[in-house]
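Appendix C reproduces, verbatim, an entry submitted by the partner laboratory led by Prof. M.T., so that reviewers can inspect both the input and the predicted structure.
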Amino acid sequence: QVQLVESGGGLVQPGGSLRLSCAASGTFFSSKAMAWYRQAPGKQRELVAFITAGRSTNYADSVKGRFTISRDNAKNTVYLQMNSLKPEDTAVYYCDAGTVDYSGSYRRQWAYWGQGTQVTVSS
């Protein structure tokens, strides 16, 4: 059974930085693509970034150049370094495990979501 535990969120001023972590249970980690999603109040959950098992990365246009996704397979952990944060980055952030299809698009594998971690960007 998969379990994903997100941490590292908090309140930060515009222009600040945060580093999110997601610890995964199970033996699947190193073979899976890992992703970060976010959901702002009143909005649909959106894909922010993903990293393949081979460590290729992909980012939403809204975070490109500001966010960096990385993974440590020895620790079963995926990270999201967020720099130059903006108020519109305010959301609950969730990590996910899945695959990348033939077109290079990320696909979720399980219906499970962790509890997420709240990021609030405000002065």
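The first strand starts at residue 4 and ends at 7. Additional entries are available on request from the coordinating office.
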